[in-house]
Amino acid sequence: MVISQNYKDIIFEVIKRYVPQNILSKIPDPEYYNKEIKRLKVQVRKMYNKRNTGQPYQRELKRLPKELLVAKNKVQETFLCSVLQNEGRCWTDFCKYVKLHKGNRENIPAIKDSNGKLITYPTETTNSLNSYYTSVFSCESNNPKIQPTQSGKPFAISFNSIRKGLSAVGGKKSFGPDGIPGEILKLGGEVVIPCLARLLDIMMNNNVIPGDWKKAIVVPTYEGGDRSIVGNFRPVRLTSVVCKQMEHVIAGYLRQFWECCG
To answer: What is the DSSP letter of 52?
Structure first.
């Protein structure tokens, strides 16, 4: 739909202009880093910022990281030796060290296909999960068909319902296939509410839904048991935040209708 696409373009333009693109959380240094390592890190950062101002800074930028790596390896070896010699807190400190250096872990390292063969290739893993979820969940052909009725009264969307729905959006909520973050809609406040209400009003009264609202990003979540069994991964779907606002509006409308007629 043209209106939906225009709305997305406006949101993305706002994000491009006013939202920082690279927000990196600072990772604290390990407790065993000494003053020498911290000094070398500062020197490397300074040389990196001055790398385009002359050859001497570029030479230092090549030398200092090597010196920093040697110093890190030395203090790590010293720290591990002291930890393993400490009988009281040996395993506690060692587990902290391993957790700090092991990095990210794959959610699905390897699963088994229908023949019991392990699958490690990402495309085959995705196809296997997709086939399993398709087999255990209902499809559109099994849904009952409801005949539309014309009441003559247009579906009205109030600003209060949109305001209430946006206030419930979590700050760390992942966005869906349309790429619109819920936090942007929430921070937009009173400026976003009339536009969003107008968009949902057009959708409801014209019986149309954008293609992005019919899609979902499915993330397998490990539930326990053997990690190689497909059935031990529960699908979690991420849908459009704007579409969820429409769902809240419809749910509120139905709730109000049942209270009035019940």
So the answer is: T
Q: What is the pTM assigned to this prediction? A: 0.57
How do residues 57-92 score in pLDDT, each as one tens digit? 888 888 998 898 899 889 888 888 877 777 556 667
Collect all residues with Cβ–Cβ distance below 8 Å to 248 and sequence separation of at least 6.
Answer: 161, 164, 165, 168
Tell me if residue 68 falls in helix, strand or coil: helix
Domain ranges, ordered by start, for the chain: 2-22+107-137+151-261, 35-101
Closest CA to 182 of 46, 11, 9, 38: 11
| Inter-CA distances, 156 with 87, 102, 151, Å | 70, 54, 13
* Cβ-based burial of 196 (10 A; exposed 0-12, middle 13-18, buried ≥19): buried
CA distances from 139 to 133, 144, 260 (A): 10, 11, 33
What lies within 8 Å, CB to CB, of 181 at 6+ separation is 15, 173, 175, 241
Length of the chain, in residues: 262
Euclidean distance between CA atoms 262 and 259, whole angstroms: 5
